[in-house]
Specification:
Elements: H1 11-20, H2 57-60, E1 62-63, H3 70-79, E2 92-94, E3 97-99, E4 103-105, H4 112-115, H5 117-129, E5 133-135, H6 139-143, H7 155-166, E6 174-178, H8 180-184, H9 187-193, H10 198-202, E7 206-211, E8 223-226, H11 228-234, E9 239-246, E10 249-253, H12 261-274, E11 279-284, H13 290-299, E12 304-308, H14 319-324, H15 329-336, E13 343-346, H16 352-360, E14 365-368, H17 370-378, H18 383-401, E15 415-416
Parallel strand pairs: 4-14, 5-6, 6-7, 7-11, 11-12, 12-13, 13-14
Antiparallel strand pairs: 1-15, 2-3, 8-10, 9-10
Helix pairs in contact: 5-7, 5-17, 5-18, 12-13, 16-18, 17-18
Length: 437
């Protein structure tokens, strides 16, 4: 060694890449891709926040109650008493489903966490909360589709079954994503015709989500780490590569799919025609043209558009994508402005303040992903139920403090951006843009 040092330069990172090569592109061994951790954007990284650990644009906003509250007076007259936070109504429609809270369980799919015991626990507890659940991509290509004739249901059908057995009548719903590999396996056709899903389908509580992208890795397909035996088994369906420098750890990659405006319109037309009783959702990654993409989907008849901000979690992604690619959720909501349909938002949602800000910027519901998995990991019986209860209490308190009594009544006037030139509330199209109203 020459003893060479480089000041003002990421020397240790360069040296690590010189030692390990392509393995350094991905998170270290022993984390979620292998079953032990969860990934998402670092809020202090370029493009995901204000830098140096500062909150992102959504968290930066202050929730600002007015002094005079005519809606509180209306509620007082209606009730014949002073209203309280307990009078705030959180039930409503989420992507075409009735839900007890403006929440849904975000997608996690074929990795060990999504398809194993934690996925089942999350499904059961989401049902108890009376909120919709999304099941992620590649469940069937990886785990197969077994209807249970031998007493063993596949991972996909097991998650659907425990949800359906638990959810109260008339609320909730199950939405299943489809990737390119899922389409090859005809996942939607299998589910729509399966006697085991008939009750959900006929009651309007089955839906399908076209996955165009994911917040944590915009433009890429699903990724995870598999062992050597599974790599050999899946090599015919997925790209499986030895880039991690370990013969027992292989990178499995799904294709991202190819989409244009016309392809999205055709896909939604196909979904409506072939599965008329199913709700139709579209999930977009946080791309620069997110406003046009969302408008295209709504115009084509989508029941809901899901926007997954760059803060969104994942099972596995290149570190450069986690930290440097995609728009933050707040910027996505700013670009969309007043939504033309049902807008669902995900990306580091875990408490009521962030949920209220997203709802005020146009979302009709917010999704719990990493937070849900952490909750059921902490307590497989009650963790997600308690997390949902805490979030619901915070939302009720905040909505009540704003002098409103329905989450659906939140709007951009309830927010103030301290980074805006004028210290006053900002118009909906100026929120997060630094423009005075």
């Amino acid at each position: 060694m020459s003893g060479l040092h480089a000041t003002g330069f990421p020397e240790q990172e360069v040296r690590a890449r010189a030692r390990t090569g392509t393995a350094r592109v991905f998170p270290a061994a022993g984390t979620y891709g292998d079953g032990g951790g969860l990934f998402g954007a670092d809020p202090s990284a370029p493009g995901t926040g204000a830098g140096s650990g500062a909150p992102d644009a959504l968290d930066r906003l202050r929730i600002v109650p007015p002094v005079f509250m005519p809606r509180r007076l209306e509620k007082l007259i209606d009730l014949g008493r002073e209203p309280s936070y307990e009078d705030v109504e959180l039930a409503g429609r989420v992507g075409g489903f009735d839900a007890r809270l403006p929440l849904y369980l975000s997608a996690f799919g074929s990795t060990r966490v999504g398809s194993g015991d934690l996925g089942l626990a999350a499904s059961r507890q989401a049902a108890r909360l009376g909120i919709p659940m999304v099941i992620g991509e590649n469940m069937v290509p990886v785990h197969g589709y077994r209807r249970g004739g031998d007493g063993m249901r596949s991972a996909l059908l097991e998650r659907i079954a425990v949800y359906a057995e638990t959810v109260p009548e008339g609320v909730g719903g199950v939405v299943v994503q489809q990737s390119t590999e899922d389409a090859d396996s005809e996942v939607w056709n299998l589910l729509y015709s399966d006697p085991g899903t008939r009750a959900l389908r006929d009651s309007g509580r089955l839906g399908f989500e076209l996955k165009v992208g994911q917040g944590a890795k915009p433009g890429l397909g699903g990724m995870t780490v598999v062992g050597a035996a599974e790599a050999e088994r899946l090599a015919g369906q997925f790209a499986v590569r030895d880039v991690l420098g370990d013969p027992e750890r292989w990178l499995r990659c799904a294709t991202p799919g190819t989409f244009t405006e016309e392809i999205v319109r055709q896909q939604l037309r196909f979904m409506r025609n072939n599965f008329p009783l199913a709700r139709t959702w579209v999930k977009f990654h946080p791309g620069r043209d997110i406003a046009g993409a969302a408008a295209t989907a709504w115009a084509a008849g989508a029941d809901a558009v899901t926007v997954d901000g760059a803060e969104g979690g994942t099972g596995w992604a290149p570190r450069v994508f986690l930290d440097q690619v995609g728009l933050p959720l707040g910027e996505c909501l700013r670009r969309i402005g007043r939504p033309a349909g049902d807008l669902l938002a995900t990306g580091r949602i875990w408490e009521g303040g962030r949920a209220v800000r997203a709802l005020a910027l146009g979302a009709s519901a917010v999704g719990l992903g990493r937070a849900a998995l952490l909750a059921v990991d902490e307590d497989p019986e009650e963790g997600l139920v308690r997390l949902g209860g805490a979030l619901a209490l915070e939302v009720r308190l905040l909505v009540s403090a704003l002098g409103k009594y329905r989450a659906a009544d939140l709007d951009a006037a309830d927010l103030w951006d301290p980074a805006a030139p004028a210290a006053r509330p900002v118009a909906p199209d100026a929120v997060l843009a630094g423009e005075p109203s």
